[in-house]
Design goal:
single chain; 8 strands
């Protein structure tokens, strides 16, 4: 495995809400994505999901509160917790999650990425 430069990886694509795999740790993928706007309310019944902010600002709406993240910050959404990621401006995020994690969790729609590509 070679070192990974997140800035270089983010420069390789422009689509939003479409995670890309940039690494693998045990049974987890390291994914990156550009996001803007609201995603979809969803839940991962069996998987925790870690969001790390590379650039921009992301708000993770939970049913009981909002968690706003700036660059260099992270938040772990525990399994079973419904959430809605929202970014007013384009935001670059890094996610650490089990390989089995479907980006839209229990929802299947046009934003579902069943097999993210490696970049």
């Amino acid at each position: 495995m070679d070192k990974v430069d997140f800035t270089e990886k983010f420069a390789l694509f422009s689509d939003r809400w479409s995670p890309k795999i940039v690494g693998e740790v045990n049974d987890a993928h390291v994914k990156i994505a550009k996001v803007q706007g609201a995603f979809v309310w969803h839940v991962h019944a069996d998987e925790d999901e870690m969001f790390i902010i590379h650039r921009g600002r992301l708000t993770i709406r939970l049913r009981d509160r909002d968690v706003t993240l700036d660059p260099g910050q992270f938040f772990i959404v525990p399994r079973g917790v419904e959430h809605l990621p929202v970014a007013e401006e384009e935001c670059e995020i890094i996610m650490l999650e089990p390989k089995t994690t479907l980006n839209t969790g229990d929802v299947v729609n046009e934003r579902t990425v069943a097999e993210p590509e490696w970049i």
